[in-house]
Amino acid sequence: AHSLEFHLADEEATSELGARLARALDSVKSEILEKGLNIKLVGDLGAGKTYLMRSALRALGFEGRVKSPTFSLLETYKVDGFTVNHFDFYRFEDPVEFEEAGFRENYGPGRVVASEWTSKAEPFVPQPDLTITLKNEGDGRVCDISADSALGNQVLEVLKK
Ligand code: ADP
Ligand code: MG
Which of 51, 54, 87 to mutate to test the pocket of ligand 1 (most atoms within 8 A of CB)? Predict the structure, then answer.
């Protein structure tokens, strides 16, 4: 499959999906160390993009506070074996700010980079390996995860299990 859909009735279901994502990332750790992995997070304000990342970081063993990067633009976490960079480009007025801030340095070997509002940093933001889209569905959410690269496909295969 090149995409998977998860129906998330409540916050707990989102937390479980975050844990599942964490396990899938852990299973491709050697590829992350070799080339890095990029995740594009799509969804309206309040869809659960930050919540899902917080859940994944908890499952990866990060015990500190996981803040929304809305104001800082970037939050960095050291987890077991790699770094997670969590961006939110919502406040960008022009995509060129990505280049001016030197944000490209935060991508590459040893890094998982998950970004909210990548549309505001295109075309400068590096291509994703995975696209995760969250939408409202009743009182809950529906989450679509699709692969944009061979590495993304590897993650999907693990997520399916
Ligand atoms: P975003 O980063 O997409 O703007 P946040 O993650 O900051 O959104 O906020 C998402 C909100 O949705 C949080 O209040 C969270 O508790 C809630 N939430 C997360 N998953 C679900 C779910 N499956 N059903 C209902 N509410 C959810
Ligand atoms: Mg957010």
Answer: 51
